[in-house]
Design a protein that fits this description.
Residues 1-14 have a biased composition (Basic and acidic residues). With 353 residues, this protein is mainly α. It has a domain at 119-352: MetI-like fold (Orthogonal Bundle). It is built from 15 helices and two strands. The chain has a two-stranded antiparallel ribbon. Strand 1 and strand 2 (87-88) form a beta hairpin. Helix 4 runs parallel beside helix 9 and helix 7 (173-183) packs parallel to helix 12. The termini are far apart.
Length: 353
């Protein structure tokens, strides 16, 4: 008789001594962690050097203009030195440019900026920009969600529909703006169809409606595409289980579709909101680039100030635009879940709650 205590697993000695245990067909198993560290460090080092050129290019292309604009925003405009009669740098101006935009005070004894000047148009431009952001994004969310829901179903010609829907989004913004400019011209298609003579490009509310309509027509497919990607990640068996439980179509939409598509929906809302906050092409082509138009956005003010030769104050304004966009992005990412990339298990937990 052999004592059972004397019988040990064949690999026990190997494990105790740190030797690799035999794998399938006698092939040695995985090496210890100490043997893997040098190759892993080498791979990490190679990866770093592979992405280093790209990071350098991004630093030059992105970081340098940002810091250059920030530096210029604290500098006074160049002026003529009365003693030498030459243009010379204005020196350090502090927060004068920022105060000019935020308070509407043109300084140098001028007091409040007179109506029609860029300094007086800042807050109206901020209001117009936020108005465009709220209205266009809200409409695009509703239409994009509806379009994505339709395109997620199985029907004949679905691929053709998906491709055709993306055509407005693929057209360059300048071309889109020019197309709608012809439609909303005084003798354009819109007035001929409606039998009216509305000044679509000069009337305050008509011009804003024209910009909103053009933007919704162009960018709703982009919103629908992002939402569609989120819808296709939802398992079909979730809907089948809801049908078996007797859930109505509205209950399936509110209890399953909306909670599970929320991460993709919030990312789409974030992208579109940031895009609208820096809108320039559509209102500039439809209504003009002067600061006194009813569709003037803050980006139009930046370009108009640069065309006037005020690069330092334009840099201050662009910095304010950046801070506004950063604040909106921070709120959406931190509190509204725009960065939520949840697994299907987490999504199911959210639905059950």
């Amino acid at each position: 008789m052999v004592d059972s205590a004397d019988v040990r697993p064949a690999d026990e000695g190997r494990v105790a001594t740190g030797a690799p245990s035999p794998g399938r067909n006698g092939v040695p198993g995985t090496r210890t962690t100490g043997d893997e560290d040098p190759p892993r460090r080498i791979r990490d080092r190679r990866a770093f050097w592979l992405i280093a050129p790209t990071m350098v290019i991004l630093a030059v292309v992105i970081l340098y203009p940002v810091f250059r604009a920030l530096y210029l925003s604290f500098q006074a405009d160049r002026g003529i030195n009365e003693a030498t009669g030459r243009f010379e740098p204005g020196g350090f101006a502090g927060f004068d440019h920022y105060l000019m935009w935020l308070t509407g005070n043109c300084g140098a004894g001028a007091g409040s900026c007179p109506p029609g000047t860029l300094g007086a148009d800042f807050w109206p431009a901020v209001g117009v920009t936020l108005f465009f952001a709220v209205v266009t994004v809200s409409i695009e969310v509703v239409l994009g969600l509806w379009m994505a829901t339709v395109m997620s179903r199985n029907f004949f010609g679905r691929s053709m529909l998906r491709a055709s829907v993306l055509i407005p989004w693929a057209i360059p913004t300048a071309v889109t703006a020019k197309l709608w400019f012809f439609i909303f011209a005084e003798n354009g298609i819109a007035n001929k169809v409606l039998g009216t003579s509305i000044a679509w490009t000069t009337d305050p509310w008509a011009s804003r409606f024209a910009v909103i309509l053009a933007d919704v027509w162009k960018t709703t497919p982009f919103m629908a595409l992002l939402i569609l990607a989120g819808l296709q990640m939802i398992p079909r068996d979730v809907y089948e289980a809801a049908r078996v439980d007797g859930a109505t179509a509205w209950q399936r939409f509110t209890r399953i579709t909306l909670p599970l598509v929320k991460p993709a929906l919030m990312v789409a809302v974030l992208f579109r909101t940031l895009d609208v906050l820096r809108m320039y092409d559509l209102p500039a082509i439809l209504s003009g680039t002067s600061g006194s138009t009813p569709t003037t956005t803050v980006s139009i003010l930046v370009v108009a100030d640069m065309r006037s030769g005020n690069f330092n104050s334009a840099s201050a304004l662009s910095t304010l635009v950046f801070l506004m966009i950063f604040a909106v992005a921070f709120v959406m990412v931190k509190f509204l879940g725009a960065n939520a990339v949840r697994t299907q298990d987490e999504q199911r937990k959210g639905v059950r709650k």
